[in-house]
């Protein structure tokens, strides 16, 4: 029976279990592989079965399901209700404040001063998109350098950062903006003093982002593979350590869509292990994983 559209009535895969919970059978695994590729753009190799099984067992328990057959049937009935949780479970959200510091140095030393001068002169707005914002460290770090640039420019400007992610848990953390003190390691002491509020009493060991940063950041759910509600343009798009999970055709489509939302000369920032080489020719590499959109 077809692994994607058929019913899951194989008695072996439906009832098999492991020492820690139900086992992920062949039929269910192939269905999940096809589902994740279609809806998330993530290509799961055959060797990922144990990883998928281990990470989804928590979802089975949370949903009160006794086997993966039931989980696959849930996805077939209502694919969108569980999509964020599934994507969050099978991907690894590794992030930190000011990760890949050279990106923020470029913003601080060159891009933001130039943009602010131009936009104040022309009456334009400034927009940055953190695509795949995870638990919020990236957009709040961007907000710190943006807020500091605005202060130095001695004026007001319509400037905002859009932060999006597919994972409901990651978005909840980002909206709270509360982090353990250990997670502030990438922030300088001066910036911690300026932008992070230390908790006391029952909040000892935690810190909250300054309200000014919240003003600059808008956090919304978004599946990068689905239609986007925003029309741009963005001055810069940060999509770091996201496309490492995608197959080649998905990367090509995604970067074309990013190019559509960037003006000529707009910037695209990727993660340290990512590249546009052989994927998209609409950008030129100008620094370490920093690309600028070409004119046509």
From TrEMBL:
- Per its UniProt entry, what is the enzyme's top EC class, as one word? transferase
Q: Which residues form a coiled coil?
A: none
Q: The organism sits in which domain of life?
A: Bacteria
Catalytic activity entry: L-glutamyl-[protein] + S-adenosyl-L-methionine = [protein]-L-glutamate 5-O-methyl ester + S-adenosyl-L-homocysteine
The GO terms this record gives for MF are:
methyltransferase activity
UniProt domain CheR-type methyltransferase: residue ranges: 17-296
Q: What keywords does the record list, in alphabetical order?
A: Methyltransferase, S-adenosyl-L-methionine, Transferase
Under the heading Gene3D superfamilies, the entry gives:
Chemotaxis receptor methyltransferase CheR, N-terminal domain, Vaccinia Virus protein VP39
According to its UniProt record, the EC number is 2.1.1.80
Q: What is one GO biological process annotated to this record?
A: methylation
The entry's function note states: Methylation of the membrane-bound methyl-accepting chemotaxis proteins (MCP) to form gamma-glutamyl methyl ester residues in MCP.
Q: What is this protein called?
A: Chemotaxis protein methyltransferase
Query: What is the native source organism of this protein?
Result: Rhodanobacter ginsengisoli
Lineage, top ranks: Bacteria, Pseudomonadati, Pseudomonadota, Gammaproteobacteria, Lysobacterales
């Amino acid at each position: 029976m077809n692994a994607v559209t058929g019913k899951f009535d194989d008695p072996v895969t439906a009832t098999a279990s492991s020492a820690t919970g139900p086992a992920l059978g062949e039929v269910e695994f192939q269905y999940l592989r096809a589902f994740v590729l279609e809806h998330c753009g993530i290509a799961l190799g055959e060797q990922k079965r144990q990883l998928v099984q281990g990470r989804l067992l928590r979802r089975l328990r949370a949903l009160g399901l006794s086997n993966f057959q039931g989980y696959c049937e849930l996805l077939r009935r209502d694919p969108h209700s569980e999509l964020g949780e599934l994507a969050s479970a099978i991907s690894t959200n590794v992030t930190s404040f000011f990760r890949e510091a050279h990106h923020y140095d470029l913003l601080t030393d060159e891009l933001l001063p130039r943009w602010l001068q131009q936009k104040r002169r022309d009456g334009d707005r400034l927009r940055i998109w953190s695509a795949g914002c995870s638990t919020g460290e990236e957009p709040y770090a961007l907000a710190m350098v943006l807020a500091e640039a605005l202060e130095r420019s001695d004026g007001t400007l319509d400037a905002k950062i859009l932060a999006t992610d597919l994972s409901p848990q990651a978005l909840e953390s980002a909206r709270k903006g509360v982090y353990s003190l250990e997670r502030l390691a990438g922030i300088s002491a001066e910036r911690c003093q300026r932008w992070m509020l230390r908790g006391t009493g029952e909040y000892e060991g935690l810190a909250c982002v300054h309200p000014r940063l919240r003003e600059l950041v808008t956090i919304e759910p978004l599946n990068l593979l689905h239609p986007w509600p925003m029309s741009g343009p963005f001055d810069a798009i940060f999509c770091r350590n996201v496309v490492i999970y995608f197959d080649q055709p998905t990367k090509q489509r995604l970067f074309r869509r990013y190019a559509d939302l960037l003006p000529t000369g707009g910037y695209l920032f990727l993660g340290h292990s990512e590249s546009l080489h052989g994927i998209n020719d609409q950008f030129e590499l100008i620094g370490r994983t920093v690309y600028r959109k070409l004119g046509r």
